[in-house]
Amino acid sequence: MASSTAAKSQITIRLCGPRGFCAGVDRAIQIVVLALKEFGAPVYVRHEIVHNRYVVEGLEAKGAIFVEELGEIPPEHRKQPVVFSAHGVPKSVPADADQRNLFYLDATCPLVSKVHKQAMRHHRLGRHVVLIGHAGHPEVIGTMGQLPEGSVSLIETVEDADLYVPPDPDNLGYVTQTTLSVDDTAGVIKRLHERFPNLTAPAADSICYATTNRQEAVKQAAPGCDLFLIVGAPNSSNSKRLVEVALRAGAKKSVLVQRASEIDWEAIGDISTVGLSAGASAPEVIVNEIIEAFRERYDATVELADTVEENENFLVNRELRHVELTAADMAFVNGE
Ligand code: SF4
Q: Residues that bind (2E)-4-hydroxy-3-methylbut-2-enyl diphosphate, according to the entry (predicted)?
Protein backbone atom coordinates (compact mmCIF):
# COMPACT_ATOMS: atom_id res chain seq x y z
CA MET A 1 0.00 0.00 0.00
CA ALA A 2 1.41 3.37 -1.01
CA SER A 3 2.08 5.74 1.86
CA SER A 4 -0.14 8.84 2.01
CA THR A 5 3.00 11.03 1.47
CA ALA A 6 3.70 9.29 -1.85
CA ALA A 7 0.14 10.01 -2.99
CA LYS A 8 0.43 13.73 -2.37
CA SER A 9 0.98 15.97 -5.38
CA GLN A 10 3.85 18.41 -5.34
CA ILE A 11 3.31 22.14 -4.93
CA THR A 12 5.49 25.16 -4.29
CA ILE A 13 4.39 27.78 -1.78
CA ARG A 14 5.88 31.19 -2.56
CA LEU A 15 5.98 32.84 0.85
CA CYS A 16 6.21 36.62 0.50
CA GLY A 17 8.36 38.79 2.69
CA PRO A 18 7.72 41.27 4.15
CA ARG A 19 4.28 40.06 5.26
CA GLY A 20 2.06 40.30 8.32
CA PHE A 21 2.43 42.58 11.31
CA CYS A 22 3.80 46.07 10.70
CA ALA A 23 5.39 48.30 13.35
CA GLY A 24 2.11 50.19 13.96
CA VAL A 25 0.11 47.00 14.60
CA ASP A 26 2.86 45.55 16.78
CA ARG A 27 2.90 48.77 18.84
CA ALA A 28 -0.90 48.90 19.22
CA ILE A 29 -1.11 45.30 20.48
CA GLN A 30 1.83 45.96 22.79
CA ILE A 31 0.04 48.98 24.28
CA VAL A 32 -3.01 46.86 25.24
CA VAL A 33 -0.86 44.06 26.69
CA LEU A 34 1.31 46.54 28.63
CA ALA A 35 -1.77 48.40 29.91
CA LEU A 36 -3.24 45.11 31.17
CA LYS A 37 0.01 44.40 33.03
CA GLU A 38 0.31 47.89 34.49
CA PHE A 39 -3.30 48.65 35.38
CA GLY A 40 -4.91 45.19 35.55
CA ALA A 41 -8.10 44.05 33.80
CA PRO A 42 -10.29 45.31 32.39
CA VAL A 43 -8.61 47.54 29.83
CA TYR A 44 -11.13 49.01 27.41
CA VAL A 45 -10.31 49.32 23.72
CA ARG A 46 -12.31 51.60 21.47
CA HIS A 47 -12.91 49.72 18.19
CA GLU A 48 -10.92 46.59 17.19
CA ILE A 49 -7.34 47.52 18.12
CA VAL A 50 -6.32 46.12 14.72
CA HIS A 51 -8.64 44.46 12.21
CA ASN A 52 -8.02 40.84 13.17
CA ARG A 53 -10.33 38.51 15.12
CA TYR A 54 -7.50 36.28 16.32
CA VAL A 55 -5.76 39.26 17.91
CA VAL A 56 -8.97 40.69 19.35
CA GLU A 57 -9.99 37.34 20.88
CA GLY A 58 -6.46 36.84 22.26
CA LEU A 59 -6.66 40.25 23.98
CA GLU A 60 -10.17 39.55 25.27
CA ALA A 61 -8.84 36.37 26.86
CA LYS A 62 -6.25 38.53 28.67
CA GLY A 63 -8.91 40.93 30.01
CA ALA A 64 -9.45 43.56 27.28
CA ILE A 65 -13.02 44.71 26.59
CA PHE A 66 -13.78 46.08 23.14
CA VAL A 67 -16.34 48.87 22.77
CA GLU A 68 -17.35 51.01 19.81
CA GLU A 69 -18.12 54.15 21.83
CA LEU A 70 -16.82 55.59 25.09
CA GLY A 71 -20.35 55.74 26.52
CA GLU A 72 -20.28 51.92 26.75
CA ILE A 73 -17.68 52.05 29.54
CA PRO A 74 -19.54 51.57 32.84
CA PRO A 75 -19.07 54.37 35.41
CA GLU A 76 -17.43 52.01 37.93
CA HIS A 77 -14.61 51.32 35.42
CA ARG A 78 -13.81 54.94 34.54
CA LYS A 79 -10.43 54.75 36.26
CA GLN A 80 -9.39 51.84 34.01
CA PRO A 81 -7.59 52.87 30.81
CA VAL A 82 -9.25 53.00 27.42
CA VAL A 83 -7.02 52.48 24.37
CA PHE A 84 -7.74 54.13 21.00
CA SER A 85 -7.09 51.82 18.04
CA ALA A 86 -4.16 51.97 15.58
CA HIS A 87 -6.43 53.51 12.92
CA GLY A 88 -6.64 56.85 14.72
CA VAL A 89 -9.65 58.76 16.03
CA PRO A 90 -11.35 62.08 15.28
CA LYS A 91 -10.40 64.90 17.66
CA SER A 92 -13.86 64.64 19.20
CA VAL A 93 -12.94 61.27 20.78
CA PRO A 94 -10.13 62.41 23.14
CA ALA A 95 -12.25 65.51 23.88
CA ASP A 96 -15.16 63.22 24.82
CA ALA A 97 -12.80 61.08 26.96
CA ASP A 98 -11.62 64.21 28.81
CA GLN A 99 -15.19 65.27 29.43
CA ARG A 100 -16.02 61.84 30.85
CA ASN A 101 -12.87 61.93 33.01
CA LEU A 102 -11.50 58.81 31.34
CA PHE A 103 -7.86 57.83 31.30
CA TYR A 104 -6.94 57.09 27.70
CA LEU A 105 -3.93 55.68 25.90
CA ASP A 106 -3.69 56.51 22.22
CA ALA A 107 -2.45 53.60 20.05
CA THR A 108 -2.85 55.52 16.79
CA CYS A 109 0.00 54.46 14.49
CA PRO A 110 2.60 57.25 14.28
CA LEU A 111 2.32 57.08 10.48
CA VAL A 112 -1.42 57.79 10.69
CA SER A 113 -0.68 60.68 13.08
CA LYS A 114 1.75 61.98 10.45
CA VAL A 115 -1.07 62.06 7.88
CA HIS A 116 -3.24 63.93 10.43
CA LYS A 117 -0.45 66.52 10.79
CA GLN A 118 -0.13 66.90 7.02
CA ALA A 119 -3.89 67.43 6.67
CA MET A 120 -3.77 70.01 9.47
CA ARG A 121 -0.85 71.74 7.77
CA HIS A 122 -2.77 72.06 4.47
CA HIS A 123 -5.68 73.51 6.45
CA ARG A 124 -3.46 75.93 8.37
CA LEU A 125 -2.08 77.20 5.07
CA GLY A 126 -5.61 77.90 3.87
CA ARG A 127 -5.96 74.86 1.57
CA HIS A 128 -9.10 72.78 1.25
CA VAL A 129 -8.07 69.18 1.97
CA VAL A 130 -8.74 66.33 -0.45
CA LEU A 131 -8.53 62.98 1.33
CA ILE A 132 -8.12 59.96 -0.94
CA GLY A 133 -9.50 56.93 0.90
CA HIS A 134 -12.40 54.58 1.51
CA ALA A 135 -15.61 55.99 2.97
CA GLY A 136 -16.47 54.59 6.38
CA HIS A 137 -13.00 53.18 7.18
CA PRO A 138 -12.04 54.19 10.75
CA GLU A 139 -8.79 55.75 9.55
CA VAL A 140 -10.71 57.98 7.12
CA ILE A 141 -13.19 58.95 9.86
CA GLY A 142 -10.21 59.77 12.12
CA THR A 143 -8.39 61.86 9.51
CA MET A 144 -11.52 63.80 8.51
CA GLY A 145 -12.19 64.40 12.18
CA GLN A 146 -8.92 66.30 12.66
CA LEU A 147 -10.41 69.32 10.90
CA PRO A 148 -13.64 71.31 11.13
CA GLU A 149 -16.59 69.94 9.19
CA GLY A 150 -16.54 71.00 5.55
CA SER A 151 -12.71 71.36 5.39
CA VAL A 152 -12.11 67.90 3.88
CA SER A 153 -13.52 66.24 0.74
CA LEU A 154 -13.26 62.48 0.34
CA ILE A 155 -12.29 61.06 -3.05
CA GLU A 156 -12.39 57.29 -3.54
CA THR A 157 -11.89 56.70 -7.27
CA VAL A 158 -10.73 58.23 -10.55
CA GLU A 159 -14.45 58.75 -11.36
CA ASP A 160 -14.82 60.77 -8.14
CA ALA A 161 -11.78 62.83 -9.16
CA ASP A 162 -13.44 63.50 -12.54
CA LEU A 163 -16.62 64.76 -10.93
CA TYR A 164 -15.11 66.65 -8.00
CA VAL A 165 -16.09 70.33 -7.69
CA PRO A 166 -13.78 72.02 -5.14
CA PRO A 167 -14.53 75.25 -3.29
CA ASP A 168 -11.36 76.84 -4.78
CA PRO A 169 -9.54 74.81 -7.50
CA ASP A 170 -6.29 76.75 -6.94
CA ASN A 171 -6.13 76.13 -3.23
CA LEU A 172 -6.17 72.39 -2.65
CA GLY A 173 -3.90 70.00 -0.75
CA TYR A 174 -4.25 66.24 -0.61
CA VAL A 175 -3.40 63.39 1.76
CA THR A 176 -4.34 59.70 1.48
CA GLN A 177 -5.30 56.79 3.69
CA THR A 178 -2.15 54.84 4.62
CA THR A 179 -3.36 51.44 3.35
CA LEU A 180 -4.47 52.13 -0.22
CA SER A 181 -3.38 50.47 -3.44
CA VAL A 182 -0.20 52.25 -4.52
CA ASP A 183 -1.11 51.95 -8.21
CA ASP A 184 -4.79 52.97 -7.91
CA THR A 185 -3.88 55.96 -5.76
CA ALA A 186 -1.28 57.12 -8.29
CA GLY A 187 -4.09 57.09 -10.90
CA VAL A 188 -6.40 59.20 -8.71
CA ILE A 189 -3.63 61.69 -7.91
CA LYS A 190 -2.69 61.95 -11.60
CA ARG A 191 -6.29 62.76 -12.55
CA LEU A 192 -6.59 65.34 -9.75
CA HIS A 193 -3.32 66.98 -10.88
CA GLU A 194 -4.57 67.10 -14.48
CA ARG A 195 -7.75 68.85 -13.35
CA PHE A 196 -6.17 71.01 -10.61
CA PRO A 197 -2.53 71.78 -11.52
CA ASN A 198 -2.02 73.76 -8.29
CA LEU A 199 -2.98 70.81 -6.09
CA THR A 200 -0.36 70.52 -3.31
CA ALA A 201 1.06 67.13 -2.32
CA PRO A 202 1.76 66.28 1.33
CA ALA A 203 5.38 66.67 2.47
CA ALA A 204 5.79 62.86 2.40
CA ASP A 205 3.81 59.97 0.91
CA SER A 206 0.78 59.07 3.02
CA ILE A 207 0.72 55.40 1.97
CA CYS A 208 2.94 53.78 4.58
CA TYR A 209 6.09 51.69 4.15
CA ALA A 210 4.28 48.50 5.27
CA THR A 211 1.50 48.84 2.70
CA THR A 212 4.01 49.62 -0.05
CA ASN A 213 6.37 46.77 0.83
CA ARG A 214 3.63 44.12 1.16
CA GLN A 215 2.11 45.13 -2.18
CA GLU A 216 5.50 45.10 -3.92
CA ALA A 217 6.34 41.62 -2.55
CA VAL A 218 2.97 40.23 -3.73
CA LYS A 219 3.40 41.90 -7.12
CA GLN A 220 6.76 40.19 -7.63
CA ALA A 221 5.58 36.76 -6.46
CA ALA A 222 2.21 36.67 -8.27
CA PRO A 223 3.17 35.86 -11.89
CA GLY A 224 2.73 32.12 -12.43
CA CYS A 225 0.76 31.50 -9.22
CA ASP A 226 -2.32 29.28 -9.64
CA LEU A 227 -3.65 30.59 -6.36
CA PHE A 228 -2.62 33.47 -4.10
CA LEU A 229 -3.79 33.36 -0.49
CA ILE A 230 -3.78 36.52 1.59
CA VAL A 231 -4.22 36.10 5.32
CA GLY A 232 -6.40 38.93 6.59
CA ALA A 233 -9.83 40.07 7.70
CA PRO A 234 -12.61 41.23 5.37
CA ASN A 235 -12.53 44.66 7.09
CA SER A 236 -8.75 44.99 6.72
CA SER A 237 -8.11 47.55 3.98
CA ASN A 238 -4.47 46.66 3.37
CA SER A 239 -5.26 42.91 3.18
CA LYS A 240 -8.02 43.44 0.60
CA ARG A 241 -5.62 45.52 -1.50
CA LEU A 242 -3.15 42.60 -1.53
CA VAL A 243 -5.79 40.34 -3.11
CA GLU A 244 -6.30 42.93 -5.88
CA VAL A 245 -2.55 43.35 -6.39
CA ALA A 246 -2.05 39.56 -6.71
CA LEU A 247 -4.76 39.28 -9.36
CA ARG A 248 -3.50 42.26 -11.34
CA ALA A 249 0.08 41.01 -11.23
CA GLY A 250 -0.87 37.65 -12.77
CA ALA A 251 -2.13 35.23 -10.10
CA LYS A 252 -4.92 33.10 -11.63
CA LYS A 253 -6.97 33.34 -8.46
CA SER A 254 -6.59 35.17 -5.16
CA VAL A 255 -8.53 34.70 -1.94
CA LEU A 256 -8.60 36.42 1.45
CA VAL A 257 -8.67 33.94 4.35
CA GLN A 258 -8.76 34.50 8.10
CA ARG A 259 -7.87 30.94 9.17
CA ALA A 260 -6.81 27.68 7.48
CA SER A 261 -10.28 26.31 8.25
CA GLU A 262 -11.76 28.79 5.74
CA ILE A 263 -9.84 27.37 2.79
CA ASP A 264 -12.18 25.68 0.32
CA TRP A 265 -9.98 22.72 -0.64
CA GLU A 266 -12.58 21.36 -3.08
CA ALA A 267 -12.54 24.62 -5.05
CA ILE A 268 -8.75 24.80 -5.29
CA GLY A 269 -8.50 22.25 -8.12
CA ASP A 270 -5.22 21.50 -9.86
CA ILE A 271 -2.43 23.71 -8.60
CA SER A 272 1.34 23.69 -8.65
CA THR A 273 2.28 27.14 -7.29
CA VAL A 274 0.58 28.97 -4.42
CA GLY A 275 1.49 32.50 -3.34
CA LEU A 276 1.09 33.32 0.33
CA SER A 277 1.20 36.63 2.14
CA ALA A 278 -0.52 38.34 5.06
CA GLY A 279 -1.92 41.80 5.66
CA ALA A 280 -0.35 44.12 8.23
CA SER A 281 -2.81 43.06 10.95
CA ALA A 282 -2.52 39.28 10.38
CA PRO A 283 -0.35 37.27 12.80
CA GLU A 284 2.38 34.91 11.64
CA VAL A 285 0.86 32.04 13.61
CA ILE A 286 -1.96 31.88 11.02
CA VAL A 287 0.50 31.92 8.12
CA ASN A 288 2.16 28.87 9.72
CA GLU A 289 -1.23 27.22 10.28
CA ILE A 290 -1.96 27.60 6.55
CA ILE A 291 1.41 26.18 5.51
CA GLU A 292 0.75 23.19 7.77
CA ALA A 293 -2.72 22.72 6.26
CA PHE A 294 -1.11 22.59 2.78
CA ARG A 295 1.52 20.14 4.00
CA GLU A 296 -1.21 17.80 5.23
CA ARG A 297 -2.68 17.67 1.72
CA TYR A 298 0.29 18.24 -0.60
CA ASP A 299 3.98 17.57 -0.83
CA ALA A 300 4.69 21.28 -0.32
CA THR A 301 8.00 23.08 -0.73
CA VAL A 302 8.19 26.57 0.75
CA GLU A 303 10.13 29.05 -1.34
CA LEU A 304 10.92 32.42 0.26
CA ALA A 305 10.01 35.38 -1.94
CA ASP A 306 11.60 38.21 0.02
CA THR A 307 11.95 41.74 -1.29
CA VAL A 308 13.10 44.22 1.36
CA GLU A 309 13.97 43.92 5.03
CA GLU A 310 11.93 46.02 7.47
CA ASN A 311 13.47 47.43 10.64
CA GLU A 312 10.79 49.91 11.72
CA ASN A 313 9.94 49.93 15.40
CA PHE A 314 7.69 52.47 17.14
CA LEU A 315 7.98 53.32 20.83
CA VAL A 316 4.94 52.76 23.04
CA ASN A 317 3.36 55.54 25.14
CA ARG A 318 5.63 57.06 27.79
CA GLU A 319 3.50 55.78 30.70
CA LEU A 320 4.08 52.18 29.59
CA ARG A 321 7.75 52.17 28.69
CA HIS A 322 8.90 50.83 32.07
CA VAL A 323 6.56 47.81 31.97
CA GLU A 324 8.27 44.54 31.09
CA LEU A 325 6.85 41.79 28.92
CA THR A 326 7.45 38.08 29.43
CA ALA A 327 8.63 35.88 26.56
CA ALA A 328 5.03 34.61 26.17
CA ASP A 329 3.73 38.22 25.98
CA MET A 330 6.36 39.05 23.39
CA ALA A 331 5.38 36.03 21.29
CA PHE A 332 1.72 37.16 21.37
CA VAL A 333 2.68 40.75 20.50
CA ASN A 334 4.73 39.46 17.57
CA GLY A 335 1.87 37.28 16.35
CA GLU A 336 3.74 34.04 16.99
S1 SF4 B 1 -0.33 49.62 8.00
FE2 SF4 B 1 1.07 51.38 8.05
S3 SF4 B 1 -0.11 53.07 8.89
FE4 SF4 B 1 -1.25 51.18 9.35
S5 SF4 B 1 -0.55 50.58 11.38
FE6 SF4 B 1 0.81 49.56 9.92
S7 SF4 B 1 2.58 50.96 9.67
FE8 SF4 B 1 0.91 52.11 10.62
A: 51, 87, 137, 178, 236-238, 281
Domain range enclosing 39: 23-110+313-333
pTM greater than 0.70 (yes/no): yes
The pick from 106, 206, 211, 311 for probing ligand 1's pocket by mutation, whose C-beta has the most ligand atoms within 8 angstroms, reads 211
The whole-angstrom separation of Cα 216 and Cα 315 is 26
Active site residue 319: no
Collect all residues with Cβ–Cβ distance below 8 Å to 278 and sequence separation of at least 6: 19, 20, 230, 231, 232, 239, 284, 286, 287
**Residues 138, 190: one domain?**
yes
Residue 314 carries which side chain, given as an amino acid letter? F
Query: Does ligand 1 come within 6 angstroms of the Cβ of 109?
Result: yes
Q: Domain tally for the chain?
A: 3
* CATH number (domain holding residue 58): 3.40.50.11270
Residue 114 CA to ligand 1 center (angstroms) comes to 11
pLDDT in tens, 128-149: 999 999 999 999 999 999 999 9
Select which of 48, 68, 139, 296 is catalytic: 139
Q: Does the annotation list 238 as a binding residue? A: yes
22-75 pLDDT, tens digit each: 999 999 999 999 999 999 999 999 999 999 999 999 999 999 999 999 999 999
Same-domain status, 133 and 96: no
Counting residues of the chain whose pLDDT is more than 90, the rounded percentage is: 97
Residue 6 has pLDDT above 90, yes or no: no
3-state secondary structure of 200: strand
178 is in an annotated binding site: yes
Residue 2 lies in a domain: no
Q: Answer yes or no: do 151 and 174 share one domain.
A: yes
**Residue 282, ligand 1, Cβ within 6 A:** no
